[in-house]
Fold:
Amino acid sequence: MGTAPVSQAATPSNRSNPASQAHEALAAQARRIRPIEIPTLVVAVAIYCGFALVTYHHAALPNWLLLILGGYLVAWHGSLQHEVIHGHPTPWNWLNEIIVFPSLWLVIPFDSYRESHLAHHRDENLTDPALDPESFYVTAREWRRAGPLGRAFLTLHNCLLGRLILGPLWILLLQSRAIFKAIISGDLKALFGWAKHGLAICLVLVWVLEVSGLPLWKYLLFFVYPGLALTLLRSFAEHRAVPSVSARTAIQQAEWPFALLFLNNNLHALHHLQPGLAWYRLPAVWRALRPDLNAASGRESGELFRGYWEIVLRYLLWPKEPPLHPAERWRLAGKPDDISGSMLQNPGEA
Structure:
């Protein structure tokens, strides 16, 4: 059940980086000594206990607090799912999947998330809208077909406020399209994943609606929507389309509530360098490798963020960059290109 976790040694950057290989060996040794990761299990218990308490006692909480707690718990559970995708917290994938089986955010099947995220970790394809399922860039063809309103949406979606408000709706639209496509094409693997997801949704809604008496509209508005928005906050500035693979992923220093919420995935350049490293080991390894990672992530170009407050100040009302992928902008400008594989293998000026 499930797929094997991404191997740390599988990425090209790891094979050529002695420091990375040393840390991989330490991480592998730690897993052999203590294969079950207690800190991650503690997080899982905290999420489910917190979720049960907040939903059951929702009537006693003011709406502003319910919004904060509900969104935090749903996004935190998404971070836990991310850990499971990378083989944590136990050596057994079937058990890891059971731990995150309830779908608190309702709209994203775990199987789909796992498949797209593992594809996203092929770093040579990062940000390429044709090859990276988690890219927020679009191709020239998609840009042309979007029309004026679609282009306005894509541009607004690239500022932080637009991402937080429109992003959850966009996710819902994409997932609705995915299940429709699976039904039309008769994709049995995808349909099986959606069937499992249906059970995961039912498990959550039985508790929320029947046991806790929380109305569905309120759960969607105070839990699901802000939970997805917080997840989109994390991913907003993680990647950029540049020729250097090592510079495509940012480091986002985070205030402790966000570091805990995202399980240190804000140290994203390190996560891509060592995707199998447990979340609670990331800060120490980052401190050891900080100079190299900061240089690779591009301090001079602003891709080392000092906190999420900096992202808010810089991009709340202003697009981070154009939605059109740089290689595609180069193509639209009529310049000759020979793009094979990743669009940035033969980069031109945007």
